[in-house]
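Quick one: structure for this chain?
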Amino acid sequence: MSDAPMISVRGEAVLEAEPEIARLSVHVQSQESDRRTAVDRLTERNQRCLDLVKSYGEAVERLETGGLSITPLLKYKRREGDVRAYRGTVWIKITVSDFGILGELITRLGDMERTYVDGPEWELRRESEVYGRAARQAAHEAVERARSYAEALGSRLTGLVELSDEGLGRHQDTGGPVQLAAAYGGLAGAPEEPEPIDLEPATQIVRAAVEARFTVTPPDLDTR
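Got it. Here's what it folds into:
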C-alpha cells in the first residue's frame, strides 16, 4: 500500500432542468346493480377513454392499463349474497411528451362520465442527459476541491485512489398535481368541450454527489 499522503473530498452538483415528460393516472368507473351491466358499462367507458387518448397521436408517448377490478358492494348487514351493487374500475396510465396538448387532454378526460384524473407528475426521462451532466459536474468539483487543498499545502495531485458515487437524486420544485373528477351523472347533450386548463411545468432539480480520494506529493509545510 502506498505511503503517499492523501486528500479526501466530496464533490456536489445541483442542476435545474425543464421536465421532459408528464404522467397521468386515470380511473374509469361503473356502478350498476347487475354485475354484467357493470362490466359492459366499464368496457364502454374504458374504450371511449382509450380512443380519446389515442386521438392525440405521437403527443402521447405511452398508454397502458395499470389494473382492472370488479367489486361487489355489500349492504350494511353484510350477509352472504346481500349485494347492493357492483363497481368496476379500470386504471389507465398515460405518459405525455408534448405539453402543448396536456391541459386540453386533462380537462377532456375529467369531463368524461365517472372518471377521475390525477396528475400531471412532471419528470425527466430515465436516460436523460441531465443526470450524466450532474454526475460530471460533481466529479469535476471533487477534482477542483482536492487541487485547491493540495495547493494550500504546497502539494500537487499525483493520482486518484477512489471515486464513489453517492447517487443521483431528483426533486420536483413547487407545484402539485391537478385532480379532476367527472360528475357521476351522464354528460349527454353537453354543448361544448371544456376549456383547457393552464398548466405550468414544474422545474426538476437534479442533485449528484461523489466522494474521492487523491494521492498528493509531500506537503511543503515549512513555507506555509
